[in-house]
Amino acid sequence: MKKALKLHNGHIRLGKPLPWNVYDNCDHLLLTRGYIIERESQLESLLERGMYVDAAEFEASVDKPRSYQAYDPFWVWDDLTAKLAFHLTHAPDPDQFQRRTEEMAGLIQALTQRGGDATIAIIMLTMDHRRYPIVHGLQVATLCEMLTKRIGWESNRRTPLLCAALTMNLGMLELQQQLSNQRDPLTPEQRKLVREHPLKSATLLRQAGVVSSSWLAAVETHHETSQGTGYPTGSCSPIEEALLLRTLDIFCAKVSPRLYRKPMSGTQAERVLFSDACLASGNPFIPALIKELGVYPPGSFVKLANGEIAIVLKRMGDIKAPMVMSITNTRGEPLIEPIRRDTSRDGFQIVGETRRDTIAAGINPARFWQENNSSGERKQWG
Q: DSSP code of 264?
């Protein structure tokens, strides 16, 4: 290989063909292009041994456009995750890092503009704890774009904010992954690293050539509070961008899975934000977030008054009455084809949430938001 690139777990998707040949640390062929790694234990063993690819081949595969007939936002999200993982886990080019991060922000803006409901559903349905640090930054950045666009921030203010969201944990990516799978309380050393990571992240960004003052300030203060109870300095004056990052950081952490716990629903996470007196006091972003997502965000699973179980498809004018697709009948039996329901109508109101792992029906979420969908779901309305 001309230039070897070491792979990490965020680069490889279980059950998907490898897009490159993989070598060991002695440049011996380990796995051929197209090989499928099926098991987590197999992947961990290979990564421990050391997996390397040709850097040029890897970058070409990341940037290669996909040919498809229907626009699939779930695939686009997965592609964004791969791009971001590559961008953040390799030595930055000081001449290119800021520009490429801004390009990532532009891709996020395009995704949300193409389909806000689909984007929210992806956040609510993402269950990939193996790439938590990368996915988490992408989730926060995406909601930053949607929320600040709602409240009228101009693009030249939104873009540095998205860049800050994508890079706010640059100084603790490995530790963040470790903590997402750790059941035990933080050790003193881990706690120290967590408290220092905003400043370390900002330092790394400066070394990578970032000069945007609002980007750097948001990263440095995204764990500070107006009461002075935050870290790393105990400042009482975090900028608005930092308050928004902190708010969405908490929300996205709650709706994401851990190896040791299940994710909260969107409704539960919204309640957590309101119940945190320190965070909620004088915070205009929490009510704005609920207006943007709805009480039952797209991707949520709910029970209807008639007994059907449904997945929330689209936000409507009433934040408590979204459009849904029923996936089971009134007896809890899976429907061959989902049925659209208007939850503002009598008999079809939402009466509660339902955990995804309690639903007997097999679900392919991408089918509900894929454009030019030819799956033939019934357009019947309740």
A: P
**Burial class for 359, CB neighbours closer than 10 Å (0-12, 13-18, 19+):** middle
Question: Long-range contacts of range 96-104, CB-CB < 8 Å, 24 or more positions apart?
Answer: 96/209, 97/205, 97/208, 97/209, 97/210, 98/163, 98/208, 98/209, 98/210, 98/211, 98/212, 101/163, 101/166, 101/167, 101/210, 102/159, 102/163, 104/80, 104/162, 104/163, 104/166
C-alpha 228/C-alpha 25 separation (Å) is 48
Which ranges in 222-357 belong to alpha helices (H)? Answer: 240-254, 266-275, 277-280, 285-293
DSSP 10: G
Rounded average pLDDT per 10-residue block, the chain, 382 residues: 69 78 81 77 82 78 52 88 91 89 94 94 85 95 97 95 98 93 92 97 96 97 93 92 97 88 91 91 94 96 96 96 94 89 96 83 76 46 42
Q: Are 282 and 257 in contact (CB under 8 A)?
A: no
Domains of the chain with CATH codes: 4-63 (no CATH), 73-293 (1.10.3210.10), 301-369 (no CATH)
Rounded CA gap, 77 and 45, in Å? 27
The distance between the two most distant Cα atoms of the chain, rounded to a whole number of Å, is 67
Radius of gyration for the chain, computed over Cα atoms and rounded to the nearest angstrom: 22
Instruction: Answer yes or no: are the C-beta atoms of 325 and 311 closer than 8 Å.
Output: yes
- Phi first, then psi: what are they for 4, rounded to 5°? -85, 140
pLDDT for 373: 46
